[in-house]
Hints:
The chain is an alpha/beta fold. The chain folds into three domains: 18-218 and 434-498, Rossmann fold (3-Layer(aba) Sandwich); 223-311 and 392-427 and 504-552, Phosphofructokinase domain (Rossmann fold); 319-390, Arc Repressor Mutant, subunit A (Orthogonal Bundle). The chain is built from 22 helices and 15 strands. Strand 3, helix 3 (86-100) and strand 4 form a beta-alpha-beta unit.
Amino acid sequence: MEISVLQKLRYGYRPKLPASLSLDTGDIGVEYGAPTESVSDHEALRELFKNTYGKPLVTFTRGGNAGIGQKLRVGVILSGGQAPGGHNVIAGLFDGLKKGNGESRLYGFLGGPSGLIDNKTVEITADMVDEYRNTGGFDMIGSGRTKIESPEQFAASLETAKKLELSAVVIIGGDDSNTNAALLAEYFLAHGSSIKVIGCPKTIDGDLKNEFIESSFGFDTAVKTYSELIGNIERDANSAKKYWHFIKLMGRSASHIALECALQTQPNICLISEEVEAKKLSLKQIVDSLCDSIARRAAGGENFGVVLIPEGLVEFIPEMKTLIEELNDIMAANDGEFAKVEKESYQEIISWLARKLSGSSESLFLSLPAEIARQLLADRDPHGNVQVSRIETEKLLIGMVEKELAERKQAKTYKGKFSALGHFFGYEGRCAFPSNFDADYCYSLGFSAFVLIASGLTGYLSSVRNLSAPAEQWIAGGAPLTMMMNMEHRHGSQKPVIRKALVELEGAPFKSFTQNRDAWALKTSYLFPGAIQYFGPPEIADITTKTLKLEH
Length: 552
């Protein structure tokens, strides 16, 4: 197979490890902290996780570990959407296992969690790992979005793990996937099995984070990829001086990507979903604010600009959020009935919904362009939610801005020119070549997962902290999955889930943004980050995100 020069060079990159993981494996000790509590709903979660709730935090340090050299058999799953660095988690896990005991074996479950349920595996060998080191994508073993939730699925998962004589299962995924990891760890123990379950924090959205998970892997690479593209568009906008570019960015439940890209590129406008929700801004208020900024720039002779829009914005607009929640519940409770109505005319669908939506939600739904309304009714994701990535929010805003500016022009309160282009940057960042930071971080997460398993721990998320420092100063260990959980309304009932981390409006990254955004809105202040750098001095090649630096 022919490969690019960059790919060949990346194969040879040797990821950096924290000092505690660079020791001889026999010298890696485990330091235990105090017992932990969930973020809320303590009693409900303690009852659901009788065997795994309240475990202590652990940190790896110099010491001894009697179990580190044991022969292990481990299965690994890539779960959910792709994120740069997944292959390096597997590489770090593989190298750790072999360093601990050369006879240890690693199996990959094919196609995500369904591979565990259906016992579809491949043994991961040294040659196989070497073909994927430091590369993007999840194509080594594939991924999937199957959710392990029925009694039959849990039973089949345990049966597969027993047949393979596994010591542990490692689930590489986001908040939902690692909620599954917590449930699986509890199920195994409740059914008398000693098979361990460990999670690794993955999602480019950046919403799987807390004090002990400072960043989910893939975020660093994705925002750098998007920021390069945004910078290119900003350069084009400032050259042509005739287009407003509305750019939607991935980030279903949180605006971390949009905020980081704004800090890196300084666009004219960046909407932050969490601020929209906090201020209870209506769709009309958002459109009016956009038009005000466009008019101010036009008054200065600049009929161009760049607007960043988080993918999940519509769910944070109060009246839209209510509508979507009602639609989710209606679909969950009436999926068979809706499937029949869906085959009828669009008007039949509207009539059916009118009988089930509240009055305000019905009025809002009817006011939306038919194209957007249809997108709200499209196929749900595996968790029963609207697939907001299919809602073309950028086009919705462009259309509403055009209409409002036309009315202002007719009223002679606006004299500028407005021509807009819409973009969606999503898949472009999910499988990019991992940055040096993500290559190092992911490898460390995989190696940490091995140490957690060898130390006899289960129900933990691999943790690497102090990430704004050089890699050798990172702090490796593990955090109990239950400490990150709460109960939420999902698919018509209360479910235990890992709480998503939203943009903190009192946090340093958002405050830095608000201190500058008024100036960026009026004066063209674009920054052009350029491509990810893999070679050169650390201040260029190993640089991390502005978000991480500001948070530290």
